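Protein 1 of 2
SEQ + STRUCT:
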Amino acid sequence: MGERAVNSPVAAISPVQQMLASGTGALLTSVFVTPLDVVKIRLQAQQTPFHQASAPWGGVIRPSKWRCFLYCNGLMDHIYVCQNGTSCTSWYKTPTHFSGTLDAFVKITRHEGLRSLWSGLPPTLVMAVPATIIYFTCYDQLRDFLRYGLGFQGSHIPLVAGGLARLGAVTVISPLELVRTKMQSRRLPYSELRVCIRSAVAQDGLLSLWRGWGPTVLRDVPFSALYWFNYELVKAQLCEQSRVTQANFSISFTAGAVSGAIAAILTLPFDVVKTRRQIQLGEMDTVGASLKKTTSTWHIMKEIWTELGYRGLFAGFMPRVIKVAPACAVMISTYEFGKAFFQKVNLDRE
């Protein structure tokens, strides 16, 4: 499996310090990226108000008094369930007309206050921050275990560690995110969490808590494997060009943006499928339908190919790259900065 390494990592930091660094990076990333997605949702809502909304479910187009849309805080995609007549419809009933992205930023800030750019963020952080902490901490632990515990070296190490770390994070968070969507659609308080889980298990079985796990894994695991493979490669090359032994903030930021963009482009078809699958599950749960007969991932992919051709599987190319690249850059550069800080603290103690 390649050359063996016998040296231990220099100025290693503890898992707790890795968790603090990744948690801080997750919060900063969400603060930076969320306004971009809020503006996108508001522009989409302007084009498709509630009374025009219809949802494809079970092969039938049904006029709807609710909407399901994807909300991204830069860390995870979350299903947001809007029911007409509730406070959530503020997404759709605001009278302000926007002529474009920049105009939306200006008008939302001026008429609704700066805080409106982070609408809906706090509930999603309950899932996104722990998922990011698990993911980044597991990646570093797995990478170091493969390199220094088992003594393996090679460019494939980040690829393997990244894929496995994401698989673990998705498996842990997936049922929690599904339950959060159910609770939101039924307007239940978090005190009813246990009742909601029992109800879901009783209705559709224990494995129903992992509905949507397949499409998420098919997108996120290859994305993470490609991302870390390219990140470590680009970072090493930039360090060599700059003649430094450890990556600084600008090197981490650049490597994160480049590797994030590459991974986003290569996994775009799976992102399109995951989006359709997530919205389908949200819509079916909102109307109280059983989840036992949901469409499989590969069937959705064939459906998109039949309807729209290969272009359908690469829909949203630019928006995804514009969203993912800066999010990856902010997250990894903040995380690396946090690790460097703790390394310095540990060295000073020694």
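Protein 2 of 2
SEQ + STRUCT:
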Amino acid sequence: MSYLLRRLRTVAVAATASSIFCSNFETDFRASVKARIPLPFQDPLPFPQGTLPLYSYRDIGSPSPSSDATKDASAAAQGGSKPCNCFKRNTIADAAAKVGPAVVNIAVTHDYLGVTAGKSIGSGTIIDKDGTILTCAHVVVNFQGTTSLSKGKIEVTLHDGRSFEGKVINADLHSDIAIVKINSKTPLPEVKLGSSSRLRPGDWVIALGCPLSLQNTVTAGIVSCVDRKSSDLGFAGMNREYIQTDCAINGGNSGGPLVNIDGELVGVNHMKVMAADGLSFSVPVDSVSKIIQQFKKRGRVIRPWLGLKMLDLNDNLIAELKVRSPAFPDVDKGILVPMGS
């Protein structure tokens, strides 16, 4: 070690925006170091203060950013029309503040023979200033076959603490989506519906709601999968797709909003995997939008289907069909399709 220290007694270090190297002027020892430096530390920041460009790295020795890119960034910093495509320090907090006033707590009182038997908690999102609230159906109704029955008295608590009695307007079993209505004398804050089809794995998302009755709770994470099939989760006979995220959600988050960093609704928080962390699932807003449109148009969701009614031919049935129609073909087995749709 002492030998190396003596040999390195004369060292010159040079650093530029495109390279860092260290070398010894003595001829019997030479060393070089190649480094990878994030752009913010190489050049003067052309971005607004408090922002950091995403994925802006370049290898040492590679060409500097083009003059066009520099001009675009400078224009953004000066309030120009071109965006800087930056993730700001307060991006998540700003999105949460934008959506938060429209997130509600839904408490459903369960009555049995006139006696309060318990209370369940969920979340919801105001999607219209008139008091229209989007939530999960399992939060507010019980299904008996295809018929939905309210679980009990619904109390909706707003972000500002005001409480209203809610009424279930529509509910769909297959999608687990419901619409609840409250009557307010003043317009209420609402959330803009975004597009779940534009999400990509790795995009930032924010979940809001009232987990375990803790109102105004915000968690953030990324999209893990944009089209997780219900069959992957063990739901046989149900053709659903979910947005999978690693946002922390718990009991009480059901029905709450999943939003992007622009504060737009991209999903409805639905469930999590109990035996794992970071596995949460939401109903995509594109599917929800179609359901809402059918609610408005028909009051329920009508799904097209294609099916056949078939009869297995046997000797008795063949004989009866020949009596009814002499033109019936001479067969001894097969399947008859009396109806199709």
